[in-house]
Amino acid sequence: MGKTTRAINLSKLPPTTRAFYDGLDAVGKAHFFGFGDGSRSDFDVPDYITTNVEDVRSKGNSFIVLGLDRPNNILSGFGGQRNSHCAAIDIVAGRLGNLAAKQDGAGKLNLVDPNFKLDAARIYLSQRSNPDYHFGLAAGTVGNTTLKSPRSTVAMKADTLRFIARENIKLVTKTDRKNSQGGDLTDLDKSLFGINLIAMNDDRPGALQPLVKGNNLNECLKEIVASIHTLRGLFKNFVTYDRELTQTLLTHKHYSPFFGIPTSPSLDELVPKGVEVLINKITNVEVQLETHGTSLVGVQQNYLEAPGGAETVDIGGGGQSLFILSKYNHTN
Length: 332
Fold this sequence. Notes:
The protein is of the alpha+beta class and 332 residues long. It has 3 domains: 1-41, no CATH class; 42-171, no CATH class; 214-321. The chain is built from 6 helices and 9 strands. It has helices at 15-22, 26-32, 77-80, 131-135, 214-251, 270-304; strands spanning 47-48, 55-59, 62-68, 87-93, 111-112, 121-129, 151-157, 313-314, 320-321. A 5-stranded antiparallel beta sheet has the order 2-3-4-6-7. Strands 1-5 form a two-stranded parallel ribbon. Helix 5 runs antiparallel to helix 6. The longest helix is centred in the C-terminal third of the chain and has 38 residues, at 214-251.
């Protein structure tokens, strides 16, 4: 079971404030948290350490900071070094997350810098930054930004992210010939312009694999099914020829050394066994070949084809389409 969080965490109140709060009646306590005519106490809002190049807008523990690239302390990032061309906008809701408090246990003010790990929710925009490093992201196949190869960035982090569109969403790369730093975007290594979906921040060898192109996979599977059909036909031909041989053996006669008189078949061994084998070939091979062929046709129609746009639906699976290609989502 997941960890639960109190709706109002009184443990973050400084001792003197907690004593004052405990002495209030029910109405006073309600006012303390901003109900009615009360003014909400910001006991859960640490003090933000600002610099002379930042313009800070805040209300409670919600901040918009206009300034320079600054991932943590005042000397961090390109802004901390007072570089040019590194403007940044940092939008934060909930500095320090569930650890946020105005004062520590000793009553001292909590002074905080941006914390890309602990702050609850953030949208960070920077003209020049190292987002992969600052957010601790796996390199994947598209590589990490570094001090020597910074990039402009829009980074978002929260417990959950939801991208919602009333019509559609596109993830598009390499729309320009140069990046924001003036660097040329060549085609020498196209993997640098790819899109990585990295669950668990895990890019160990073998963890990341290329996405499959649906149409190509569909054609490949159709060719495999067709090849199986061909193999099935060849085997059916073999069974037919073998059956003819078995029938010939059942009626085969040898000629007696006595004046060349033909002998009768060996009824005690060959005929009974031959009849048994013939029946087995018909029931266990030929009939099963037809069943197998019907099954292959079903696989092709259900999963690989949508004749006239109509997809086969798995009723037992809640009416989900069995067609392997998505009608909605595409990748290149």
